[in-house]
């Protein structure tokens, strides 16, 4: 949830840490800080607010080649200068930055306070600094190990100690930590975004691994002091992919990247010879895939909603019962894991705590789970038996757009792949393949009408409440449309199956509560028209997203091109993303970093 970064090398650490924090800011942005070894001890700067607020407090120059940094999403203690990281012990001999939650913080705090330790923050992290300072081991690694044996919870930490000014110690348990390997310089970070400018060579730490970094090298061991041999892997990301280029916001850039992103998701995966799809990474033989009698998709937030749509696609194509469930709900209901059920875990970051825990729960009970993931080398991707990468490229805006549509594209491919093993005819397969090939071009055409959607966004920005309705796939599109508007513009938006409206929510329909109706050209058009009539009868404004003129007049109508019925949601979501974006602009919201949110939720 937070972002941690560390550097040890020959260059001045300050600019490297600050640039790294800017790259990690989408992980949490309510306070930030750095600590750097310099002559005479640790230089620590931290501040409530964005990284730039902390940056304003930094001296012009600060000599020091070893340091750590942090950007925060508050779990313990409100955003403040005192609760900002790094945290130190009373003598400022130890500095710690931390991503995660210490679950037994209460007991540790009580012990320290009982021993007369004066705490200066409300955080769980500060406890680690005091505990490490009290250890008498011969090395910083030993002291960190000794403390972490007393700690339960999820954490990725980086630690400095004044007695060892040439080294940096990092540890991972549940929260991601990746090392960056360069010539005489070593980095540590919560994700590769902070490293990619300096190196393509990375080492992913696994749970329970601790690394000691100096300018001459790194060593990875376990909490039991057993050496871990790690092989660096090469990341295929370019530094420029993390820049906004000429776009005002990452969200807008990523919306406009979608045609290319979907084209990358499709690359090498269309199989015209068999009117099917090619999915090389599933790591399951076709004959074994056919033994699964049911499919369940898990994820959180938009990833869960992509699963809801994906389940409908797979069920329609492969005629296998398929549904989706929020990962946290699934893992805490002591789920019955059936051998004949195939599970998919959806996560763009590949680090979402509840989705990872659901994967581990399935594996613990002997089930088969595949990943649909964007971040290559992420924990969920490395933990699943196999899966499909989105290849959407890095997504920096907290609000997911391109990874959502690429996930839907992957589910269309999975549905086709399974369907062509069963009852889907070659001609039906060909029809979907043709539509998939045409999709990026059609998306480009729709995105070319941004001004039209921007005007609607500005118009609807004046409302504080809104309904989204639809039926079947239309309802799942409504769920994602409502989430986008909520997340980025703070308009209270709710999605409902259109059929449910008259069973309660209709009570809130007024001229001040517009309804966004998702009306694909399917066999439920008339039913949707009836619902729209019921809303209009109560003077509720209606904005319809449709695939042609409607027999009923509405306040605003947006028409998207026809395509294969399973791909219609992809074209219908483009205007909804841009309406949310422009409504947020009109409401002067922080589009890329909405309040209270973060890009990768690595805590429960
Ligand atoms: C979507 O816009 C949000 N950022 C959020 O709901 C997100 O989808 C959720 O946190 C899951 O993230 P993941 O795909 O990285 O697992």
Q: What is the gist of this entry?
A:
34% of the residues lie in helices and 23% in strands. It contains 18 helices and 26 strands.
Describe this structure in words.
With 604 residues, this protein is of the alpha/beta class. Helix content is 34%, strand content 23%. The chain contains 18 helices and 26 strands. An eight-stranded antiparallel β-sheet has the order 3-2-4-1-10-9-11-14. Helix 7 (258-266) runs parallel beside helix 13 (402-419). It is globular. The termini are close together. The model has no long low-confidence stretch (mean pLDDT 96). The site of 2-deoxy-2-amino glucitol-6-phosphate has 15 residues, from helix 9. 2-deoxy-2-amino glucitol-6-phosphate is lined by residues 300-303, 347-349, 352, 355, 398-400, 487, 600-601.
Question: Could you outline the blueprint of secondary structure elements for this entry?
Answer:
Layout: E1 3-8, H1 13-24, E2 31-38, E3 41-48, H2 51-55, E4 66-72, E5 87-88, E6 94-102, H3 105-114, H4 125-134, H5 140-148, E7 153-161, E8 168-173, E9 178-182, E10 185-189, E11 201-204, E12 209-214, E13 217-222, E14 233-234, H6 250-256, H7 258-266, E15 270-271, E16 276-277, H8 286-289, E17 294-299, H9 302-318, E18 322-326, H10 327-331, E19 341-347, H11 353-364, E20 368-373, H12 379-383, E21 386-389, H13 402-419, H14 426-447, H15 450-460, E22 465-470, H16 473-489, E23 492-497, E24 515-519, H17 525-536, E25 542-546, E26 556-559, H18 568-586
Parallel strand pairs: 17-18, 17-19, 19-20, 20-21, 22-23, 22-24, 24-25, 25-26
Antiparallel strand pairs: 1-4, 1-10, 2-3, 2-4, 5-6, 6-7, 7-8, 8-12, 9-10, 9-11, 11-14, 12-13, 15-16
Helix pairs in contact: 4-5, 7-13, 7-14, 9-13, 9-16, 14-18, 15-18, 16-18
The structure holds 2-deoxy-2-amino glucitol-6-phosphate.
């Amino acid at each position: 949830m937070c972002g941690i970064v560390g550097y040890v090398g020959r260059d001045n650490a300050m600019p490297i840490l600050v640039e790294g924090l800017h790259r990690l800011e989408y992980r949490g942005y309510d306070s930030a800080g750095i600590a750097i070894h310099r002559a005479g001890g640790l230089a620590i700067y931290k501040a409530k607010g964005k990284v730039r607020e902390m940056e304003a407090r930094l001296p012009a120059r600060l000599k020091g080649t070893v340091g750590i940094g942090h950007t925060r999403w508050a779990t313990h203690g409100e955003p403040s200068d005192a609760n900002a990281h790094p945290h130190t012990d009373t003598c400022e001999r130890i500095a710690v930055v931390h991503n995660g939650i210490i679950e037994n913080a209460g007991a540790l705090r009580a012990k320290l306070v009982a021993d007369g330790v004066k705490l200066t923050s409300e955080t769980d992290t500060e406890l680690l600094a005091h505990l490490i300072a009290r250890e008498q081991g011969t090395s910083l690694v030993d002291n960190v190990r000794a403390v972490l044996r007393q700690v339960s919870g999820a954490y990725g930490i980086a630690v400095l100690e004044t007695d060892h000014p040439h080294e940096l110690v990092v540890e991972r348990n549940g929260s991601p930590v990746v090392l960056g390997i360069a010539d005489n310089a070593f980095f540590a970070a919560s994700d590769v975004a902070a490293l990619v400018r300096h190196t393509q060579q990375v080492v992913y730490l696994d749970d329970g691994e601790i690394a000691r970094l100096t300018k001459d090298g790194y060593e990875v061991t376990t909490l039991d002091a057993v050496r871990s041999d790690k092989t660096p892997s090469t990341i295929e990301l370019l530094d420029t992919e993390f820049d906004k280029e000429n776009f005002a916001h990452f969200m807008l850039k990523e919306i406009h990247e979608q045609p290319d992103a979907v084209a990358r998701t499709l690359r090498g995966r269309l199989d015209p010879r068999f009117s099917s799809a090619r999915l090389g990474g599933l790591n399951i033989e076709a004959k074994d895939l056919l033994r699964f009698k049911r499919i369940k998709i898990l994820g959180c937030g938009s990833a869960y909603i992509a699963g809801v749509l994906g389940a409908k696609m797979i069920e329609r194509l492969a005629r296998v019962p398929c549904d989706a469930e929020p990962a946290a709900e699934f893992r805490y209901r002591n789920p019955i894991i059936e051998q004949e059920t195939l599970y998919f875990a959806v996560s763009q970051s590949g680090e979402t705590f509840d989705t990872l825990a659901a994967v581990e729960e399935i594996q613990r009970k002997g089930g088969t789970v595949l990943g649909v993931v964007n971040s290559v080398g992420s924990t969920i991707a490395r933990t699943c038996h196999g899966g499909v990468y989105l290849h959407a490229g890095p997504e920096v805006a907290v609000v997911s757009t391109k990874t959502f549509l690429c996930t839907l594209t992957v589910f269309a491919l999975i549905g086709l792949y399974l369907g062509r093993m069963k009852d889907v005819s070659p001609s039906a397969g060909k029809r979907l393949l043709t539509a998939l090939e045409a999709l990026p071009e059609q998306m480009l055409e729709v995105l070319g009408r941004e001004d039209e959607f921007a005007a609607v966004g500005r118009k609807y920005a004046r409302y504080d409440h809104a309904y989204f309705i639809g039926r079947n796939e239309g309802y799942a599109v409504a769920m994602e449309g409502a989430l986008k508007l909520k997340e980025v513009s703070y308009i209270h938006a709710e999605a409902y199956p259109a059929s449910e409206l008259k069973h309660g929510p209709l009570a809130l329909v007024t001229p001040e509560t517009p309804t966004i109706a998702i009306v694909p050209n399917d066999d439920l058009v008339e039913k949707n028209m009836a619902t729209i009539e019921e809303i209009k009868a109560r003077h509720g404004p209606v904005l319809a997203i449709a695939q042609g003129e409607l027999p009923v007049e509405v306040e605003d109508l947006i028409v998207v091109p026809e395509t294969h019925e399973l791909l219609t949601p992809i074209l219908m979501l483009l205007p909804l993303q841009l309406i949310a974006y422009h409504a947020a602009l009109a409401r002067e919201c922080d589009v890329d970093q909405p309040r209270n949110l973060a890009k990768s939720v690595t805590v429960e």
